[in-house]
Structures are given as structure tokens and as C-alpha cells.
Specification:
The complex is a heterodimer. By secondary structure, chain A is an alpha+beta fold. Helix content of chain A is 60%, strand content 16%. Chain A has a five-stranded antiparallel sheet with strand order 2-1-5-4-3, with helices on both faces. In chain A, strands 7-9-10-12-11 form a five-stranded mixed sheet. In chain A, helix 8 runs parallel beside helix 14, helix 9 packs across helix 11 and helix 11 packs antiparallel against helix 14. The radius of gyration of chain A is 54 Å and the shape is rod-shaped. Chain B is globular and about 65 Å long. Classes of the chains: A alpha+beta, B alpha+beta.
Amino acid sequence: MPNLIFISFYIAIAGLGIFLFAAQKLKEKDKQVAALKASLEEMDEQAKLIMRTDMELNKTQEELDKKISGLDILQKLSRDISTTLEEKQIFRKISSEHLEELGFEKSLAFLWNDLKREFYLCLNLGFEDAESELIKTAVNTDKDYYLDLIRSGKNASSVFIPDDFLTKDRINQLFEVRSFIICPILAQEGDQGFIFVGTQNIETRITEGEQELITILANQIGQTLDNARLFEKTWRSQQELEIKVEERTHQLSQALEEVGKVSKRKSDFISSVSHELRTPLTSIKGYAAILLAGKLGAVPDEIKNRLEKINRHSDELVHMVNDLLDISRIESGKVNMKLESLELKYIADKVADLLSEQLKAKNITFSTNIPDDSRNALADRSQIERVFINLVGNALKFTPENGKISINAHRSGKIIQIDVSDTGFGIPEDAQGKLFQEFFRVENAINQEVKGTGLGLALVRHIIEAHQGRIWVKSKLSEGSTFSFTLNAA
Amino acid sequence: MNISLGFSENKDHIQAVNEAVGQAIVGLGKTRRDLAIIFTTIEFAHPLVLKIANNLLGGIPLLGCSSLGIITNRGIFKHGFAVLLISLDQQIFLNLALVKDVNKRTPVAAGRELGEKFLSSCKDTRRNLSLIFSDGLISDGTSLINGLQEKLGRSFPLIGASASDNSAYVQTFQYFNKEVLTDACCGMLFGGKVNFGFGIKHGWKALGKIRYVTKSEGNIIKEINNEPAVKLYEDYFAKDALELAKELRRISIFYPIGIYLQGEKEYLLRNIISIKGDGSIVTQGDIPQDSPIRLMIGTKDSCLAAAAASCEEAKRSLGAQKAKLVMIFNSTSRFTLLGRQYPKELEIIKSVFGENTPLIGIYTYGEQAPLKSINYLGRAYFHNQSINILALGGQ
């Protein structure tokens, strides 16, 4: 019995111990569960933080992606647009692909026509023609709102609508989109307007970055419109100028043609008159010679004297007629220049030799200076000899006794310039320009004494020009003159 | 089975149809044409386009749907018209069917009707696979499948895609012979010996503690842990219901609800369509009451890894056979999540199946495919945000 009591007591103690142990364990488990629950709650809170951070990161990433692709496409678009100089072509450069890269599928651009007081459409992407016409009508109905927006220079978008502009819903409804940006196109000159871009994509959120990109695009369009308009203005002025120049050129050509006709008539007239004159002159001269020779009987001195005058004047007249005929022939191109290599020094010396008597009579010093590189010219021998004779002859006529006459030459490239200089009386400045005209003679006392036809220098000019050369004079009164002409080097 | 693909992104729609169909016809040569599957972006969703295609193809059976983009060997295109021409082997047959007014008549009724139509001409034949294209804006995609499974059997292999538009969520299109439809579901039932493999994955990971759907009706979650369902999102994002509603699409894509499935490696995702005034959440597929759920988070890397896993699974289930054609039904959400990296998925698919394996695909608002775990006996489910790969093998 005592054993039983002892055993029962022992069992009760053990049971209590087990109970206490189990209770302890349970308490610990509860603690662990509570700790786990707390951890789970903490982890859930952390998960919330992760979600929120992830969402922000995604937004930033998306914004960045949009900016990168937007900038890329904008750069391509800007390059294409900025090189366009035709107003209509500017908007054609913007394609659906560009628009999609910017995150939109619909776009319209309107410019304001101040004369008609209405907006006109210049870009349509993503709308049927009938739809865009309806929108244009609606835009013109609400034109004051859009004009105010353009004047303000502000954007309107799904995320920001300026005061006094149409409501977001009105825009969404009109353009059938869920998100949009409307940005003014601000050109300095001419029509201004706005560009609309929009999308039906429910996932699109208009960001500040996108608004900036569309603003850049609108500015680029505005600047290019300015450039195109300036270019068109300049181009039009140039066209007008070209038309005027063309008109004037035509008038001048006609006048020149008329002058040519008159000149030809003159040449033909001179030629025929000269020919007609030469025959009777030859007869007059012949008869005078017969009479002078006394073949028809002795001629009294008084008559002889008159006959000599007739003979001399006839000679002068023949000379004049010959010069006129030569000028006429050269002008009409009837004289063929037989070009050959001429030794200028030889011609100069020949002329000097020809005129040696007169030079000696007036004690005039004659000199030539023709360097080796200017020795040979390509010219017609007989014609160039006439030039030298005329020029040296003139110098001789107008140079007082003890003067100097020189012939100098120098070469510049393929051209040889020949200068015939004298220490004569000189030519007045106002007469120098007319010197090479037919029948022009300087009106002064010397010319009263020295006879001439006024055709010599005109003939010289024609000969030189027929050689593709040029002739001019430099002169100073009382100091002398230099007649210069050019010929092609041989 | 012989296949041939044609694609054109010509902006002239008629020209595009001519080009794409022309390529496909030339590719198939003189082989008999049995079926055409057409995928287009929404601007091609026009009866005239389909009529021209039908005429060019000689009036053969035709089905397909619209999409945000077209996936081809050449790349992913945001505009285009694609055609897949199939010439079947003698021992394979197919039956095409269409149901209209899915939402109008309830999706489950439409599913039943579609099932009946599929079976109408092949009751005594071995049926192998069903491929369906449904309107992506059907509110309860799960019910449509349930209705279909009532007729075809719960474990019958079903692969499908819910058509998409240009992310406007306004209207999607289904193509059936010469008809362009909305609120419809069309598809085909393959019978005979069809060799196929499939894989479906999404890549989203669970975050936070498990919660339970304590009250739900079809695709409406009323309460989670005995609180209004929206509170889950309010707590996690520190935003009230109004603020959440403004960013709902975005939040739904990046942080959908995941239903825990025992034995499955991934949770079954559910997109949120809307938040109701009483705090209920409307999802694109159903969430049964008492389902354990968690909030999910996706990253670009996990998304791409899932694409690779999906392809590998499809390839593996095809066995030793080489894929003759790979069809891709890829969620539009993945396109959004991947952003500029979206072409990488195509690179991954090509790297698994080989550069020259013909492939064609679309972006979807929902995907249908069976679960792999034994617990689900091969039953097809409605998926969100997943990449669904169907590989068809040759003899």
C-alpha cells in the first residue's frame, strides 16, 4: 500500500513535471510562432517596400527608354526636316514610323491662314481623310481656343490643360484618343499653328519627357518653316531678278541686232559708194595726169597748178576711199587674216626705213626695243604693216622737230603688247575715247595744219580687233602719246 | 504536314495581302492547301482584306485573329499581314468551328456550342488537339474554356490565344473564312496523328505573404482575407482605389495576382480589369474561392528566362521530332514589360528551335494551355501574361 502511494505520488510528480515541461515547450513554440508571424509580417512590409520601389524604378526606366528612343528618332527627324526648304515637304518628312517611335499613332498639324481666318491641315497621320476633315471643322469652330494656346506658347496635354483651353475630355473625344499632346508651332514669319499627337493606347502615360520631345519637334518645325519661307522669298526675288535680266538682255540683243543691221547697211552703203566713187576718181586722176603730161598740148602754168591740185586731191580721195573700203571689208568679215609668225623687229625697222626721210627731215630719233620673248607675233603681215605705218606715221606727223619715237614690246603670257610712243603734242583727255572712231579728228590748231581723213586710227582698230587684239591710247598734252595694241604671241 | 508562311508590311493593304499570300502559295508549291491561318495588325481587320485573301487562296478554310504585332522569323512587326498555309497529311483531319456573341450569350454557353460544333463531324475519330482564337476583351475567359471542356473533356489538349488590338482595349477581331468578327471565338479540332509539343511560362515571381480569396464569384474577387479585395493593392502601393484606378493597367501588368497551384512551378496569373465601387476586383480569368494567392512581381530578366523555359518545354514535349512549325501566343503585357528589349524574346525562341525553323506568332490578351502538373490531369487553363509556345512536328 505504501508502495502504491509512493508510486502514485511519484507518477503525479512525474506527470506534473511533464506537464510543466510541455507547457514550457508550448510556450516556446508559441513564442517561435509569434516570432515567425512577426517575421512574416515584417517580410510582407518589406515586400510592400520592394513593390513600391520597383514601381518607381519601372516608371523611371520606362521614362528613360522613352527618352532614349524619342531622342534618337527626334535627332533623325530633325536632320531630315532641317534640310528641307519647301514648306509642304517639311510635314511630309514626318512618317507613321517616326510617330510610333515617339509613342503615338495619330498626329495632325494645322497652320493658321490669316487671310481666310481659318486653320488648314498640313499633316495627317493615323486618321482617315473624312475624319481629319471633321476634326478640321471642329478645330475651326473652336479656333479662338487654339489661337489663344498658340499665342500663349504653352502645351496642352492629357496631364496638363492650361486655363481657358478646351477640356481634356473634349480633346479626347474629338481626336478619338486616350492620351495626347498639343504643342504650338511658333514660326517667326508667316502662318503659325500647332501639332497634335495622340494615342489610343490605354497603357500610355504622357510624361514630361514626352512633352519636351514634342516641343522640340514643334520648335524644329517652326524654325524650318522660317527657313523655308526665307528661302522661298529669296528664291522668288532671284527669279524676279533673273526675269528682269532676261528681259533686259533680250531688249539689248534686239538693240544690238538693230545696231548690227544699221552698221551693215552703213558698211554696205560705204562699200558701194566707195566703189562707185573709185571709178570716176580714177578717170579724173587719169585725165588730170594726161593733161599735166602735156599730151593734149602745152598747159599754162596757172592751169597746171590747178591740175596738180586736182591730182593731189584725187590721190587723197582715193586714199580715203581705199581706207573706207578696207574698214568696210574688215567689219563685214570679208577680209581673211592670213596669220603667220611675224618678226616684229623686222616690221618696225621696215617701217622706220620707209619713213626715214621724214624722220630725218624733222630730226626725230627713232628707236625700237623688242625683247626676244616678244619677237614673234601671230598676225597678217600686210595688215600689221599698215598698223605700224599708220601709228608711226601719226607719231611723225604730231611730233615736233628733234622729238623721239619709239617702238617697245613686252610679253605677258601668250599676249604681246606693242607700244608706239612719241614726244608729240599729246591728245586732250576728252578726245582720247573717240580717237578710234571713223572720221573723228581732234579739233586743234595742229590738225588744221596736218591733213588727215580721220579714218587711219579707225582702220587700225578694225585690223587689231580682227586679230582678237585690243588697242588703246595714253596721252598727256605737251608730253606725248603712247598707242598700245596687243597681238597673240606666235 | 507541309507548311508555308507569307508576310507583308506593305501599307497598301491589298498589295500586302497579295504579297503575303503570294509568298505562302509559292512556298507550298503544288502541294494541296488545306488550311490558312491569318494574323494581322488591326488596320488589316477589314472584310475586303479577308475576301481578297480568301479568293487568292481558292476558298480554303481560313481562320485567325488580330494582334498588337506579328512575330515572324524576320522580326516582330507592329504593322502587317501574315498567312500560314498548311497542307495536312492523309491521316490528319480537322474541323473548323465558330461561335458568335460570346459575351452576349455568356462565355460558358458559347464554349459549349463551340465544343459541340467541333465534335459534330468527328465523334468517332481520335481527337488530338484543339486550337482556338477568341476575342481578347471577353470578360471571363475561363468560362469559355469551361464550356468547351464540358464537351471535349477536361483533359483534352487545348491551346489558344485571345486576340488583341493596338493596346487600346477597344475592339479585337477574329477571322473565320470570309467573316471579320468581334465577340467571337473560332478554332479547329485536329484529329488523327498530330505531333505537337507545348510550353507555357510567364516568369513573374511571388512576393509577400500568402493571402486567401475569402469571397469570389467567377472572375470577381470580392474579399481577400475577409477584407475588400482592393485593400491588397492599397496596402502594397500606398494608394487609394481612385489613384490605383488611374494606373490600373500598368499595375496589373507589373504586379498581377498569382494563384498558387500545387505541384506547378509557376503561379497562375490574373490580370486586373477593373476595380468596383465596393472594393471588388475584376480579373480577366476566374479565381476560385479559398484560392491561396500572392502578389506577383516581374522583371525583364525573369520574363526572358521564362520565354526560354517555355520554348525548352515545348521542344522537350515534342520528343525526338524536329519542330516543323512554331506558333507563339505571347501576352501584350510582356511586350510592355520588356520595353525596348522586346525583340530579345524572338532571339531566344530562334536560339532554342533553330534559326530556320518556321515560326509565326501574335501578341495576346490571354493565353489558353493545359497545366503540366499531374495534379491537374492536363486540364487547360486561362493564363495571363504568359508566352505560349506550340510546336508542331512532322512525321
